[in-house]
Amino acid sequence: MSVIKARRERERAQRHQLIITAARELAEAEGWEAVTTRRLAERVEYSQPVLYSHFSGKDAIVRAVAIDGFGELAAHLRRARLANPELRQALHAACRAYLDFATERPALYQAMFVMPTDVKFAHAETPPPLRACFDEFVGCFRPDNARRELFAEVIWSALHGIATLSASGRIPLDIQDERLDFLVTQFIDAPS
Amino acid sequence: MSVIKARRERERAQRHQLIITAARELAEAEGWEAVTTRRLAERVEYSQPVLYSHFSGKDAIVRAVAIDGFGELAAHLRRARLANPELRQALHAACRAYLDFATERPALYQAMFVMPTDVKFAHAETPPPLRACFDEFVGCFRPDNARRELFAEVIWSALHGIATLSASGRIPLDIQDERLDFLVTQFIDAPS
DNA sequence: CAGGATGTCTAGCGTTGCTAGGATGTGGCC
DNA sequence: GGCCACATCCTAGCAACGCTAGACATCCTG
């Protein structure tokens, strides 16, 4: 009896993840406006209502995709930072990794940082992977810098601005490197 | 004959603007998701198809609202900048004015800088009011600074990041002043 | 005063997110 | 083993969306 129940819950969890990855793939391939509950249901080979037995609505699916993304971004940032022992280079690499992530996975990035969400960032209930992302930026500044959290927050905001304005075509991509160099230079030599 | 035609065109232009302001008011009051063609038509006291005789679709209405906003933002920034003769204070005031604009008119800001658009920013066909906004930031740096355009672009991006992350509740509003002070400090003393 | 152009509305199409209610099939109990 | 109860899943449909076709009315022109 309990074995069967366990198997069912396992299958259910698998399907749960299947929905998330299907939504993400569809969004990455054709953008979020193409992710309709019908198309998503067709893709996971179930009918629409099963989506609602896993998630309260479409927004919840987007949120689930976003949380997946936080983990990946944290790993990306960590790899970039640790590959450079020197702080300035580490910050530069992390920033570049961030912008690359945003341009290579635009739909995922949108779900994480643009679409309406109820995830609080600097908060007790912040999802650990998201907190890990933030900490990667904090780690690019000296430990004795009392304001390093503020530094991290502002540089993250700046990167976010650059990423979104680029993604929507509002600023050109061709001088992205210059922007990046300039940004890092301004922030790395700040008084603590 | 020509008089009648003129009157009609005048009335038509008035109604055109009426649609734009109605869309903006509705968006400011209840957010863009509440701006449906039906509600908008009801508000201007015409039927839906009239909207389509003025605009190619809902997107075009949003664009029209956005362009209205560029003019207002430029005026805001200009006022803030000119009220402070000293460059550092001028930049600080302009940045604050920008963030205030974004928080006080969130829906308008969204139409201008978040929603999909075909407006190019640094381009020959950039609408003059938008170019004027950019020039206000450029004017906060010394004329002999060869990279002032880059400075302006990056600081604008940073402000945009702060504004959008704040608006979506991703970063808390309570330390906005600290962020602003820090940002201005980092950018004003940059080597040209 | 008739004819044609212009302007506006009613009605409806296809699609969206979401849900109610019935059919199907499996698991546990006597 | 037979039956009931429960869980699972799907068909069908609702209200609202952006948008459009075609009928109706209104006004200027000759």
What's the arrangement of secondary structure elements?
2 copies of one chain form a homodimer.
Chain A lengths: L1 H29 L6 H7 L4 H7 L3 H25 L4 H18 L1 H8 L14 H11 L9 H20 L8 H13 L4
Helix pairs in contact in A: 1-4, 2-3, 4-5, 4-6, 4-7, 5-6, 5-8, 5-9, 7-8
Chain A binds a DNA duplex (30 and 30 nucleotides) through helix 3.
What does this structure look like?
Chain A has 192 residues and is mainly α. Chain A has two domains: 1-55, Homeodomain-like (Arc Repressor Mutant, subunit A, Orthogonal Bundle); 65-188, Tetracycline Repressor, domain 2. In chain A, 72% of the residues lie in helices and 0% in strands. The first copy, chain A, contains nine helices and no strands. The radius of gyration of chain A is 19 Å and the shape is elongated. The relative contact order of chain A is 0.11. Chain A binds chain B through residues 113-114, 116-122, 147, 150-151, 153-154, 156-162, 164-165, 168-172, 175, 178-179, 182-183, 185-187, 190, and chain B through 113-114, 116-122, 147, 150-151, 153-154, 156-162, 164-165, 168-172, 175, 178-179, 182-183, 185-187, 190. The structure holds a DNA duplex (30 and 30 nucleotides).
